[in-house]
Amino acid sequence: MPLISELIARAKADDEEALEQIIRTYQSRVAAMVISRIGQDDEWQDLSQQIFVKMILGLRRLKNVDVFEPWLFRIARNACFDYLRRRRNGWVFVPWQRWHDSIADETSPNVDSRGVALEAAINRLPSDQRELIVLVRSHELSYSRLSQITGQTVAAIKSRLFRARRRLRQLITKSESEE
Fold it and tell me: What is the pTM of this model?
C-alpha cells in the first residue's frame, strides 16, 4: 500500500481510488472516535460519513500532508461537538408512561465484570477526558499527535490524561467495591 502522503497527493488530484483507500484506512478509527464521543447512538454512521464528506471537500485546501491525520481527527472532533450541541438543544421531555416501568434491566451478572466496569467507567468520564482515554486506548497516539488533534499543548494533554486516568481508577475501584 502506498504511503498516506502519496494517497493524499493523488486524492487532491481527483484520484477516486486513492480517496477510497484513505477512507478505508481511517474509517474504523474515525468511527471509534465518533462512538466514543456520542455513544452507541443510531447516528454514528451518518456522522462518520459526514466527517469524510467534510474531509473530501477540504482536502484541496490542506497544504501540509504531514498534518493530515490530526486535521482529520479535528474535523471529527468538531463534528461530534456540533452533533452533541444540536442533540442537547433538541431534547424533548416525554411524560412518563406506565409501560416505561416494564422495560427490562439489560445488565447481566454473568458478563465479564472487569470489562463492563471499565466501559461503564469510561462512559461516566467527562467528555474531554473520555475523548483522550479512547484516543490513547484505541489509537495509541503520542502526546504530540493528541496535541495536534485537540489543539491543546502537550503539557495540557499530559495533565488531562493524568486526571482522566486517576478518575477512571476511582470509578473502577468504586464499582468493584459496590459488588
Answer: 0.55
* Rounded Cα gap, residues 56 and 72, in angstroms: 10
CA distance 179 to 177: 5
Q: Are residues 59 and 116 both part of a single domain?
A: no
The dihedrals phi and psi of 140, each to the nearest 5 degrees, come to 50, 55
Q: What is the pLDDT of residues 32-84, one digit of tens each?
A: 889 888 876 678 888 999 999 999 999 989 888 889 999 999 999 999 888 88
* 61 vs 54: CA distance, rounded Å: 11
Q: Range of 154's domain?
A: 112-178
Among residues 24, 30, 32, the alpha carbon closest in space to that of 1 is found at 24
Cα-based distances in Å from 141 to 66, 68, 70, 71, 144: 15, 14, 10, 14, 8
Tell me if 74 is assigned to some domain: yes
